Amino acid sequence: MPLLRREIGDVLRSARQQQGRTLREVSGAARVSLGYLSEVERGQKEASSELLSSICDALAVPMSTVLRAVSDRVAAAEGLAPPASAVATVPAAPVADLGIPPVVITRDGLVSAA
User: Fold this and answer.
1) Which residues on adjacent β-strands are paired with residue 36?
2) Rounded to an integer, what distance in angstroms lies between the CA atom of residue 79 and that of residue 84?
């Protein structure tokens, strides 16, 4: 059984790396210490809902998209196939305003450029 905090961390790290952003950039935007964000990404710390919201806002990725990707990764680890429609696309409008490329989080939790 996968640990939820590890799956959340993996999805957040993938989104950050796909955007070409550093831990320092995202931690500053999310107003969380660099060390703590690093621990969240590595699955060593549980992110509160408030912290997760701040990180998602800093990444311009809806929390629902992150949680959907995490849910699909857990389902896959449990041997359950996620629904075929479980591909979430991060909206391009707010991200474009920040100069950050939009990302696609697939049903297996992988993040790629749109």
Assistant:
1) none
2) 15
Helix or strand or coil: residue 44?
coil
Rounded distance between C-alpha atoms, residue 51 and residue 37, angstroms: 9
If we measure between CA atoms, which residue out of 78, 73, 76, 66 comes closest to residue 105? 66
CA 28, distance to chain mean position in Å, is: 17
Task: Give the residue extent of every domain in the chain.
Answer: 4-113
CA-to-CA distance for 83 and 99, rounded, in angstroms? 32
Tell which residue, 17, 22, 15, 3, has the closest CA to residue 66. Answer: 15
Superfamily classification of domain 4-113: lambda repressor-like DNA-binding domains (1.10.260.40)
Specify the pTM. 0.72
Note the pLDDT tens digit of each residue in 31-71: 999 999 999 999 999 999 999 999 999 999 999 999 999 99
